[in-house]
């Protein structure tokens, strides 16, 4: 069975390429990390991909707004190539700065603006799945980390209404295991309607602020030692004593690979 191929954009401050590549490869995809300039020079490379990823980081130092400069370059230089890519039965993922990039590029609606508490916020959050997407198949809730200063989802009342009607709100911040464990508010940034992620193109495009690639192993969980003690006291096998010892974020990547294996 042919493995789906992933192209992960890099350059100008994006910094989660390696862990994103590792996550995809661990569930059966092949992946290349390619600099934005190289893709602009040879946009035909996107024809070889089934999945495109814009990952996290601080592209262009967040100057003029997080993701805006990178998004403008994508729209200006790769608009046609992206349109052709999405015209095929393909998938696209925007994580954190990547979500900011794809909103700035006009691929999905809305914007990510400064957190209500105007500072960088790095912690774990709990999410509830709100819509159907190849990326989210079989997932109802998810606990994964955030790391951003401009993660508040904002859109006009009309856009929000359209998102609700079309089922495009993919993920919402919600009270769950980690927020209760650490006694933190569910919504970390003031996002309207508690929105953590949205979908486009019939669910094939997913943009989200939290980082699934940072939650692919049990031992990445912030309270894994606490959970370990619970397993020990209940006489259960520790998750990391058997392989694979997965974290909650890995299923998102597996879903993307299985989407193509199911064809």
TrEMBL record:
A GO molecular function assigned to this protein is: hydrolase activity
Task: Quote the InterPro entries the UniProt record gives.
Answer: Class_I_gatase-like (IPR029062), PRibForGlyAmidine_synth_PurQ (IPR010075)
**A GO CC term?**
cytoplasm
Keywords (A to Z) from UniProt: ATP-binding, Cytoplasm, Glutamine amidotransferase, Hydrolase, Ligase, Nucleotide-binding, Purine biosynthesis
What is one process in the GO biological process aspect for this record?
'de novo' IMP biosynthetic process
Under the heading Gene3D superfamilies, the entry gives: 3.40.50.880
Protein name (record):
Uncharacterized protein
Question: From what organism does this protein derive?
Answer: Candidatus Kaiserbacteria bacterium RIFCSPLOWO2_01_FULL_54_20
